[in-house]
Every structure is written in C-alpha cells, then in structure tokens.
Amino acid sequence: MKKLVKFAASASTTLMTTASLLIGSSSALAATKWDMPTPYADGIHHTKNVRMFAEEVKTLSKGELNIKVHSGASLFKHGEIHRAIRTGQVPIGELFMAMLGNHDEVFKLDNIPFLATDFESAKKLWDSSRPAVEKSLAKDGLKLLFAVPWPPQGIYSKKPVSAIGDLAKLKMRSYSPTLSRLSVLLKATPTTVQTPEIPQAFSTGIIDAMITSPSTGVSSQAWDYVSYYNDAQAWIPKNMVIVHNRSFKRLPKAVQAVVMKAAADAEKRGWEMAQQETQAKTEALAKNGIKVSKPDAQLQADLAKLGEIMTKEWAKAAGDRAKQILDAYNK
Ligand code: PCA
C-alpha cells in the first residue's frame, strides 16, 4: 500500500495529470491518465495516428497508462503546446517541428525548400537530424517520442504560378520562421495563420496564397478561395510528439517500455500513412475543382536556387550541428 500512495502523490504534482488507484485489479495497481493536446483536425493522418498510438499504449499497458487525445487545438492553441509541456501543465503533446525555429535553429531545417523533396530523402534527413533534435529537446527537459511527415508542400494560388515572379507581392500564409523567410525571398508578404483560421484569413483578404500540403488544403476547403494547386513538392515537414521527461520517468519501467514501443510503431505507421494521405488528398483537391499541376522547369529551377540560399543561411546560423547533419545527409 505504501508504494501505491507514493505513486499517487508524485503523479498528482503534475497539473492535469491524475493518478487513480485501481483497487481490486490484479494486473494494474495504479492507472495514470495523461491529457495530450494536438494541433490538427481529426481527419488528418497525424491525428488518426496519434489516436492509434494512445490506443496501443492503453492496450499494452493493460490500462495502466491512459492517454486522452485533445485534437484540433481544443486544449491548448498550437502556439502554446510546446510551453504547456515544457512547464509541466500537460505531460505529452504534438506540434509542428519547425514552429520552434526561433527557439533553436536546429528546428528550422525541417522546412528548408528543396533539400529533401521525396519521402526517402526526407527519411534520410530525419535520420541525420534526429540526434540533434533529441539533444535540443533534452535541454528543455523534453523527450522525443516520434516524428511523422506531412505530404510534400505545394503552392495554392488564385492565379496559375509558372515562375517565382508570379508569387511576388502576394500575401502569403506562413506557419514557421523558415516559411516566413522563404516568403520574403519570394518578395511576398508573410502572415502567420494557424490551420483553423485559414478559411477566415482567405475570406477577409489577410492572405491570398499559401504553401502547404494537400491534407491542409482539403481540411481548410481551399477550393472555396483558390483555384490552383502547384504540386511543387518543396519540402516534407514533420510533426513531433514529445513528452516531459519527469512525467515519463514517473511511469513504472514496464510502462515506459510500452510507450517507447508504441512510439516506434507510430513513427513507422505514420510515414506510411503520410504517403497514402498524399495520394488521397491530392485526388480530393482535384475532385473538388482545384486545378492540380506539376511545376514548370523554370519554377523548379527558381525555387531550387532559393533552397540553396536557405540551406547556406541555415548552415551558417546552426554552425557545427548543421555541418554534422548535412554531412551525414549527403553521405
Ligand atoms: N499542414 C500544416 C503544417 C504543414 C502542413 O502540411 C499547416 O499548414 O499548418
């Protein structure tokens, strides 16, 4: 009994984390409940995958750890999720990796155009950068559980885009410091808009173009505001699921192992889901009347040049870590 009380007392120190005693259960002595904020809507593959992860944790831990997923930024706004985990308000959560670009340069890598544009290269880039990402998170007392890509990013616009000059002067939606920098290089004006606000931002004229995935194009019903999707496949960004170290260590060893197993499964499954999502959602864009096209050679060459500039800028800003990552990636 002593042990139970100790567990319940330590777990209760984390706000919104509750430990309850399962009296009479033979397999589980104490159950822990974790609230998990995620930023994106239920129809997105990331959210589906996170729910499967929570389910697997519950099953494998025989109910000892119960993760309650709060999707669609319903518990915390996307911009608040990182801090909520860091400060222990919630033990676990999901966020877009490159949102932390101003927190640490290492996260900017995730949105650099034309560095890794197909899933195989994106996976290689992730394998090369993962140790640096884990190290950066660890400095804040955080642990990486898994990272899963979005479909490749393309250009949504009201008029066709055949060279980068067509993007100049546009009001471009941004979702990360790296994308804002790209917008400036394109001579467009970036405005940060989170996914739930995309329809309103278009309808009120705050933005008139965006670079994102077919998933987000579909979830924001882009056909109501734009007519063209240029499948430029500019980069393949990721979401990551992170946990507060203290909350993780408080779990019994066997449950920690369950979380890591479910995380590895979620990462593997998520990379497969992203590829299926790419095809399904690109088809959905076309079905809803958006003209889907591949980039002209000129546009591709123009964008590749900007990618080189941004890779150099990043390598300079991120120093030794950048060199290590890029050397490993280019090997
Ligand atoms: N959708 C998210 C991030 C990347 C993506 O494809 C967004 O647009 O905010």
UniProtKB/TrEMBL annotation:
Cleavable signal peptide: 1-30
UniProtKB keywords: Signal
Signal among keywords: yes
Superkingdom of source: Bacteria
GO terms, biological process: transmembrane transport
Record's protein name: TRAP transporter substrate-binding protein
Keyword Transmembrane: no
